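Internal tracking record. Fields below are filled automatically when a chain is submitted to the structure queue. Please do not edit lines marked as system-generated. If the sequence contains nonstandard residues, flag them in the REMARKS field before resubmitting.
Queue: standard
Priority: normal
Entity type: single polypeptide chain
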Amino acid sequence: MVNTTSDRGGLMVLLRDVALPMALYYVLRSFEVDALWALLVGAVPPVLRTGYVLARHRRIDPISAFVLAVLLVNAAVAVFSGDARLLLVRSAWVTLPLGAVMLASLVVGRRPLLFRAARTLQPARAEHLERVWSLSGPFRDRWRAATLWWGVGCLLLGSAVVVMAFTLPVDVVPVLDTVLTVVTVVLGLKLTRQRLGINRTVDA
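SYSTEM-GENERATED OUTPUT FOLLOWS
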């Protein structure tokens, strides 16, 4: 049941934050709306979601705050420059720093970022995860390996988006970005579950 709920939640995030902006972009472009403004409208759903969470809970997690700041700054720069391609790289503004932080957490952090995120998202299991971490070397190695490949994956994904944004036709990039992001996330989650044994147990 937990995995089913998690899967549905992850699917909803992909549909809302990745697929919906792409769909809005192509709908607006079919009505001959300028690419810059179509991309701006496509960025509205994630901003509204973050605003809703902030208004309802009176707080915002650091990752959501960072994503919101990136979207707003990126939108402002694109509007003032008039260059739609600057909006095409907005996802890279998130994945590149995130990948770098993940890799840095393997060197300077006491716990890899992916493990800390799992602990934060599962407060009821946080104590259990910490206990297994302190007792099991293989458990620690698996989380470090998962953080490594997610960090590298984020860097590769972000780099690919930047290359596509500045070399391909503007109208081609949103769909390629969406497909690449969805495939990367789905495969990454599948590999993570297999490597960490999430479908079986979080224990060593």
